[in-house]
Amino acid sequence: MSIQQNPPKVGTPDIPRQHNPNRPATAPASTAAARALAVLRIALGLTFLWAFLDKTFGWGYATSAKQAWINGGSPTKGFLGHVQVGPFQGVFRDWAGTGWADWLFMIGLLGIGVALILGIGMRIAGVAGTVMLALMWFATWPLAQHTSLGTPTSSNNPIVDEHLILIVALIAVVLGAAGTAWGLGRWWNERHFVQTNPWLR
Fold it and tell me: 148, 117, 111: which is closest to 131 by C-alpha?
């Protein structure tokens, strides 16, 4: 009794891929993309943090010393108090200068800015930043050509404005795990309380 073996396959045999120690663990394109997202993350964080500092101390850029929060000024009254456009203008004017609006706005600016710069709590920062920017978009209402007083709004673009672009950038850095490059994201995500509460990532 003979045992027949399968005939050998015709063609080039499969050669197992050997590990190349000289090959980088991360492709250059991936490294460049991670660094670009890290730069974008830090830039966004500095944008939020600067707004907090200028409104708190009145460094003379968007906020004068007289209007500074530490000198009794309201961070929301100047902007929300003059909203004259969009379907929610009355709501925003009612919020202007109230204590809860001032505190929420300033805590949001500080928390989002610090989280983005450090690369920790990216999900919370992304959600909070998106909500804040969306509210600012509704307050400016770039869809309108004229205010309720009949004056031109000088809207630059009724479809895509800077608030929407910043929202897209926030979503990109969160989904791209940008906190792990040039940030404390990897260390933060390894903490036990973060692993048991993934929404803190």
Answer: 111
